[in-house]
Amino acid sequence: MRRKKLRKDNRILFTKKMQREYTILVPTMLPMHFELMAAVFRKRGFRMEFLEDEGRQVDDVGVRYVHNDMCYPAIIVIGQLVDALQSGRYDVGKVALLIMQTGGGCRASNYLSLLRKALERAGYAHIPVISLNVAGLEQNPGFKISLAMYRELAACVLYGDLLMLLRNQCRVRECNPGDTDALTRRWMEKLQAQVSTARMSGRLFRETVQAVVADYASIPRHTKPVVRVGIVGEIYVKYSPLGNNNLEEFLFSEGAEVVVPGLLDFCLYCVYNNVLDHELYDMRKRSAWMWRWITRYLCRLKNDVIESIVEEGSFQPPSPFEHITTLPEKAGVLSVGMKMGEGWLLTAEMLELCEMGVKNIVCTQPFGCLPNHIVGKGMMRPVKDCYEDVNIVAIDYDPGASRINQENRLKLMLATAKRNMEKQNS
What we know:
Order of helices and strands: HEHEHHEHEHHHEHHEHHHHHEHHEH
Number of helices: 18
Strand content: 5-15%
CATH architecture of the domain at 16-145: 3-Layer(aba) Sandwich
Structural class: alpha/beta
Helix content: 40-55%
Largest sheet: 4 strands, parallel
Distance between the termini: 72 Å
């Protein structure tokens, strides 16, 4: 194997030549969102593949190569990557690994070093690792994201959020089982084709959103009352079917409508925190204007989606981000200065769900994740003080956690939710 160029910090660079020749393996979190985002990179010549490896072996590989005191998302993401390398499906001399991170002040900020350490132990120290982040960590000459790509990625996140929202609201009420999933597959194909070929514009985005909403509204649905369950928590275990033991599917199988806050809210949270750094701590004086502009731009896109949903009238839209930011301090439970982990956003999402009438909430968190235990489990009592009828259960996820115990706790929460719904409708 030929020697690869190293930087001063002794990490292997992902070069422009590698961009043409290497397959980039990416651990998945939100399958629909990530498949759309992959089309953006493939259009620019990147060979990108999202991993679908799952099962007990992923946990086992993760625990083998990552210290078990590290957070569960790190263990399972690294386990998925190393398991894929060991599967024999890839030429390990022609692959790179991509990992997403926020660079925040928790164990998740160690993902890069943990992954490289795991690769070294597993015999893959020659494989380059790419960090996808907005904090400016570890630049690579072969992995550059242009402004146009950022715009398209933002549109993909919103398309994914929209499909997730409409699918969840239709699927539990559809008169003909399978209609919603079939429509979702058709729109995924259309959106991937659009992202792969068309130049994204505001007009195209709005027209596409309106067409998606209209198509889902045409699905025949019943009007029987159903239990509505919101999911909040640490970003990976909140969204990833691998990380939360297919939580959404389990709740759906129990007859519940699943309400999951969109990924764009988390992206906006990361961006808006830079604005807060300037306003609260007088930091980022030179870049504050840029973060404000990005916040306004993303909020405008989300508000376009909300407007289309409201105009159609069949579905409940999400709340504007500008409103979400006010909820923790308005309720008197938390300051927006709390930015570790999912920070104030996690508490705000619980309050948003309650405000929307979703009074049954699952708070997902990695075992031992201190930031999320504070803003998640630690905020359950203050949220209940604001909404006395809220029904919240906190579920910890860990390689040693029992899926049966998790599902039993969820069934108890659902039993309470069904009793409350019956009382309300009697």
